[in-house]
Amino acid sequence: MRILITGAAGMIGRKLTARLMADGKLNGRKISQLDLQDIVPPPATVIPAQAGTQLAINSLRDKKLDPRLRGDDEGGDGDNGFKITTHVGDLAAAGTAAGLVHHKPDVIFHLAGVVSGEAEANFELGYRVNLDGTRALFEAIRAAQISPRLVFTSSIAVFGAPFPVVIPDDFHLTPMTSYGTQKMMSEALLADYARRGILDGIGIRLPTICVRPGKPNKAASGFFSSIIREPLVGLPAILPVPRDVVHHFTSPRTAVNFLIHAAGLDGNAVGPRRNLTMPGVGVSVQEQIDALGRVAGPQAVALIEERPDEAIWSIVKNWPTRFAATRALALGFEAEKTFDEIILRHIEDELK
Amino acid sequence: MRILITGAAGMIGRKLTARLMADGKLNGRKISQLDLQDIVPPPATVIPAQAGTQLAINSLRDKKLDPRLRGDDEGGDGDNGFKITTHVGDLAAAGTAAGLVHHKPDVIFHLAGVVSGEAEANFELGYRVNLDGTRALFEAIRAAQISPRLVFTSSIAVFGAPFPVVIPDDFHLTPMTSYGTQKMMSEALLADYARRGILDGIGIRLPTICVRPGKPNKAASGFFSSIIREPLVGLPAILPVPRDVVHHFTSPRTAVNFLIHAAGLDGNAVGPRRNLTMPGVGVSVQEQIDALGRVAGPQAVALIEERPDEAIWSIVKNWPTRFAATRALALGFEAEKTFDEIILRHIEDELK
């Protein structure tokens, strides 16, 4: 089983890499090779993997890189016996994608992308990375004639306001950001390439990941994590939107579970509609804060300061709320049931 | 008022050109310049326009081209006093689109594209023309900072089976052809570019055009016209699909009316959902044939031969049936009410 991960240096990419290194297998088959691509060097490769052991994810961050790994490098065998290769480069640049599929991966996790805030601020970068990068990868797969299972991380940003209270699977796609537009276009490509048998694609529309570990990134959704993550370690946090904003969340651990589950799905059971909205926990900001209070007490809640931000609000107000995710649930995707559970997973995975 | 038409040599492009040359104005403003682009020379420019006179459309076909018009050429003033320039070139090629928007058109009709059957048969050509060509045009507009009204001809092929009996405006987009995928992706671009103010776009999802004049093209939908057009002039026609297939039609004249109406719409009244499903006549093949019998008698109907074609059926069976087109009707788009009317318009416009 050969696996390629694009965007492997990102938060989900690092957690997925750690999970695969720990498991040593995917879809019941032993992993023989793991290719990690990102525009910056993926740090995970320097972590020795113990087969069957869950790695502490925090240890993957800010780890000093082995100088041999700066640039494309044939890494040695992992401790669990598979080869890890890192690839540093722009997926949209000529030749990059062809180099990545050269080893004929059986499964590709296509995670590479710039986040919503950045795609909105930088029009050209967003289209280049989120659309051209995806298309370049798909085209390289077509040229290589390998038809791998390809799991693509799309986003609930493909949907646009106004929304019903609970959004059904067949809600129309009217994104209201460039990021959502790029994800929608990539989903359309994935479905067409899958229909033609060029690749065996599954698009998963991830809920907003919460609690996102580490430092804030440029995602407009960053505050949803900050108001939990910072108070849990005694730091202040800013809430830039009204407390009645409802949004749809999943933990990083569950997001990785979604990816692993998608890799093993029977494509025939999925059918021609290859893009699936993932289940999650739909709660208001107030309900998030109430859960924080239950888990960490009123002193944590007191660290949240309301400071309205028009730029963030203008994006977030058009975001979806709760999803039915009927198809994904029927296909066996499992999410948290409460926001308390999401906070507890963060504490287990990041703060122990 | 400066106008650019891409795909001006196509059937709709020629009819739109003739209409604009006859009207001499658009949105109540006098036309000062008309730029006609296609990958083949647009023949319409050789027709002397009489302001206020409806040109006979048939005369635009197979007209021998003035040799000066083979290639980019500054045409002289039309008889009604506006300048017509033809541009022959591939919209997706570097520099073509920039050259087209050089004159800062106020209104652009973006019609260029390859049809469904061709996009399905030739994967690379379809993406190049239908997606890359559109994006190149939009990017040239962004670079020129002109924000024109841009009317884009999308298609009901953005929708995919299974369908409800009447398809609502907010039905989800799950195309089942590469053509539909390319139109869906172009719609997404149009909405995002419009949201950012780069262009003032309106996408109109045209029903299948019927009766399409002239010779059959590579569209999988060709037989819908053939079974009417050929018998009306005493020729045999082939029906490759079952008679209970229901589909959504509009005449060429009405399609041109849609384009003209879209050019004058108030963008604020349209709102952020810039892609509109057009109204049309939803009938079964049997109802088409019944209308032909009413208009032209049983001897015309007898010229239709049923000869099932699996390749055509595999595409057509996933096509939509009837549309509500609620938003378009509210915005003043008007269609035929019966298929008899569609046949009579064909006779008026093409056979007199």
Give a verbal description of the structure:
The structure is a homodimer of 352-residue chains. By secondary structure, chain A is an alpha/beta fold. In chain A, 38% of the residues lie in helices and 19% in strands. Chain A is built from 13 helices and 17 strands. Chain A has an eight-stranded mixed sheet, with helices on both faces. A three-stranded mixed sheet of chain A has the order 11-13-15. In chain A, α9 (285-296) crosses α13 (339-350). Chain A is globular, with a radius of gyration of 19 Å. Mean pLDDT of chain A is 89; it is low at 44-73. Chains A and B meet through α5 of A and α5 of B.
Write down the CATH topology of chain A: Rossmann fold
Overall mean pLDDT of chain A stands at 89
Q: What Rg of chain A do the Cα atoms give? A: 19 Å
The CATH superfamily label of chain A reads NAD(P)-binding Rossmann-like Domain
Number of domains of chain A: 1
**Element string of chain A (H = helix, E = strand):** EHEEEEEHEHHEEHEEHEEHHEEHHEHEHH
Quick one: how many beta strands of chain A?
A: 17
Report the end-to-end length of chain A measured between terminal Cα atoms. Answer: 32 Å
Shape of chain A: globular
